[in-house]
Amino acid sequence: MKKNDIYTNTTEIEYLNMDSHIHKNHHQLILMLRGTLHIRVDEKQYFLPERFIGLIPANQIHNLESRNEMVKMLLIYFPSTMPLNKFLLLSSNDFVLENLLFISQRHHHQTKKFHPELYSFSYAFLKMIKTMDNLRAFPLKGIIKTNNQRLQQVIQYIDENYSEQISLEHVAAEYGFSVRNLTRLFKNELITFNYYLNYVRIIRAIEMFTDQKENIEKVGYAVGYNTLSNFSRTFKRFTGQSPKSFIRKNKTTLSSA
After folding, report:
1. What Cα–Cα distance (Å) separates residue 95 from each residue in 92, 130, 132, 174, 252?
2. Mind listing the UniProt keywords for this protein, alphabetically (predicted)?
């Protein structure tokens, strides 16, 4: 890719699992049109649901993975001359979505020479997105991927058993920790055991909703909550909206874009 040009692509992929890579001269914008995405940037793992945007700086090592059977993404690669110093995870609104779709549907390879007006508009809009403060309020923050091998085992156990009625005391005993020591290990990663367990559960619930499994009560039980009220309360705390509102908001025309 020529370093000063803008490239767009809409791609639909089954079982996405892309190893670590970089984009040398271009920042990358990912808009999720269908499905969800896990993005690992350096030592942090981020979660990107439908209608959300990830901005990955040029030369930033990252990998992409999805647990959904099919994902559809709008990708825009834009010049690294535009300042972008860190990964950004942004929400969106109809104004942003419509303009990104407009940019992607005109020319897949935009140059200053052959598409001066479109190029200027695309560049200016992409520059504006990362400064829009109202797009930055996203409760599901990234999670540190720990280098502590003993804690890695605990994390893996939670990832595989989140649907069970597990507790800090149970997991500590299972892996030979005292409750105090395991609590301290999580604290060193700036999270708590309960936060990580609920984080995993809510992400899995979003993935299930995205795969059209929309019975809220069944999804809540499937990811480990024993009451609908507990699931709904936790879901809203992590996402800012109730499961019902989340499902309704994501039934948009995006999937047919």
Report:
1. 8, 14, 12, 50, 14
2. DNA-binding, Transcription, Transcription regulation
